[in-house]
Amino acid sequence: MPELRGNLRPAFLVSIGNSLYLSIFLFFSWTAIADVTLPPIFGDHMVLQRDVTVPVWGNSSPGERVSVSFGNLYEQTVADSSGKWRIILPALAKSSQPQSFIINAKNRIELHDVIVGDVWICAGEGNMAFLLAKTPEWEDPHGLRSEERIRFYIRDNDVIPIREKGGHWVVCTRDKASVCSAVGYFFARDLWSSQHIPIGMIQCTKTDSPISSWFSGASSISLAKLNDHSVYKELIAPIVSFSIAGVIWYQGESDRGLSVLRYRVELQRLIKEWRKRWALGPFPFFAVTPAGYGESGAVAVDLYSSLQGDSTGSLPWLRESIATMLTLPMTGVAVADDLGMPEELFPNEKLLVGRRLALLARHRFYGEMIRDTGPVCKEVRIEGDKIRVIFETFGSSLTLGVPPSVSDSFPFSLATSLKGFAIRGDGTKWFAAKGVIDGRSVLLSCPTVPHPKFVRYNWKDFPEGNLYSEQGLPVASFRTDLEQPNKVAQP
What integer pLDDT is reported at residue 309 of this predicted model? Predict the structure, then answer.
């Protein structure tokens, strides 16, 4: 091999060196001129929240000037040293007229068919994830129609890493709405029909996700030890800051069992944390109680038990835990106790769930003068060998009904006797009680309980109570005793 002198190098070394220099040059050049990008929540057909400021954020080259324009609005900023940028648009008026949403930097992004209305998050487990395509209403060719002013943001169902997962907005036409949450759709449809405001639904659903997995991990040390917060990281963190009107929540299937008492604390913590994260004040948070699930037995009350990971009698406690959220402002509970089917954890009755949620929003958020909840136990009086339960009926009246789960075989008009009540005295055993409606109260008695003291209603996994308002809204399960599951003796 000849001796190398001066700057002479073998040709292959020159080639390798030049390629290396070129690669390095291209890498830094690409980094320097990185395209402006947006989170997946910003896309064609999206709905922007009306009447509040609208944050828009993304990434670009460090120091790059970025502008956002929508209609007559125009705002700009400069990306920080890490390439992150954020722009706050002033409050927008509702508009069903589609417009373009434009982001300009070194490159240009133009989003089409963007409208302004109210944006709600529909979050939860399998019952919230239950698809519209699986409901009886979808099977009826005349039951549903295209609703182009209702849009859903749905996460892409793929297997790529969580950090790269995207999503897209779906316009609820008859051929595309099948992939939407049935509860979310029926909720949105009632709002659109009553308010004539475009509705956007951000679908955040994950089957088999206990409530502890929906926290960011910053709420408390105890919660941080319970889970990896994977659901929050995957579904909630990417949309925090996107302006919303409120949240509807249908979750709890994974919290049956030993966690039912903890749930009453965790749900309130969740609401407080999400409100803090969004910094929009006490936005509406409306939850659903678990529908009936399990066998309908002859006992008056399902007593709690847990054997080898399987639990019975826990759903009434979960329903009670959900109801404790009502101590927080701008909250509401849609009762679904009567909408279950034996041995169906995910019943297909979702129309009434969505409708009852919509009643809460129409009354408590939109200000309609309508009744949004069934009668509520207000007071209990002992009258000799009988016990009287007095209800707050909110201007309605008490009436007998038939739970929708059995209405096909037992028409509403044929309900003749009151069901679902149990009473007890000083002992620990509960007995089914006979009851009669007396104005705004129900008078209960049982020959086996000559000195009644306490009442429970629908305190079963699969309740069969039939007390409603005249508008068809059910009385929620309730109790007047103070026992806890681990202190309730077996009969």
Answer: 58
Instruction: Quote the crossing angle between the two packed helices 351-364 and 182-195, to the nearest 10°.
Output: 40
The pLDDT, as a whole number, for residue 221 is: 42
Question: Alpha-carbon distance 26 to 123, whole Å?
Answer: 44
Q: CB atoms < 10 A from the CB of 163, how many?
A: 8
For 410, the token pair is 């037992």
Distances (CA, A) of 45 to 36, 53, 70, 111, 114: 20, 19, 14, 8, 5
Beta-strand ranges (E) seen in 229-330 are 246-250, 285-288, 305-307, 310-312
* 480 closest CA partner among 402, 424, 433: 424
Whether this model's pTM surpasses 0.85:
yes
The token duo for 250 is 């249908």
Q: What is the pLDDT of residues 418-437, one digit of tens each?
A: 999 999 999 989 999 999 99
CB proximity list for 259: less than 8 A, separation 6 or greater: 210, 211
DSSP labels for 391-431?
Answer: EE-TT--EEE---GGGTTTS-GGG--S--SEEEE-SSS--E
Task: Please identify every stretch of the chain with a pLDDT value under 70, giving residue numbers as ranges.
Answer: 1-33, 157-165, 218-224, 226-228, 258, 307-310, 405-415, 486-491
221 CB burial (10 A radius; 0-12, 13-18, 19+): exposed
Domain(s) of CATH 3.40.50.1110: residues in the chain: 114-364
SS3 content of the chain, % helix, strand, coil (to 5): 25, 30, 45
Six token digits for residue 274: 């999400």
Architecture (CATH level 2) of domain 114-364: 3-Layer(aba) Sandwich (3.40)
Give the per-residue pLDDT at 28: 43
Residue among 340, 457, 338 at smallest CA distance from 387 = 457
pLDDT 10s digits, 253-292 = 999 876 788 999 999 999 999 999 999 999 999 999 999 9
CA dist., res. 426 & res. 429, Å (int): 9
Indicate the pairing of strand 454-457 with strand 386-392: unpaired
CA distance 67 to 86: 10
Q: What is the CA radius of gyration of the chain?
A: 28
Give buried/exposed letters for 391-430 (b at 16+ CB in 10 A, else e). Answer: bebeebebbbbbbbbeeeeeeeeebeebbbbbbbbeeebb
CA distances from residue 233 to 11, 102, 144, 184, 220 in whole angstroms, order as listed: 52, 28, 34, 22, 16
Q: Which two tokens stand for residue 451?
A: 């000195």
Dihedral angle sign, alpha carbons of residues 36, 41, 45, 46 = negative
Residue 181: DSSP 8-state: B
Could you tell me which residues come within 8 angstroms of residue 391 by beta carbon, excluding any fewer than 6 positions away?
Answer: 375, 376, 377, 378, 398, 440, 441, 442, 475
- pLDDT score recorded for residue 27: 42
pLDDT for 140: 84
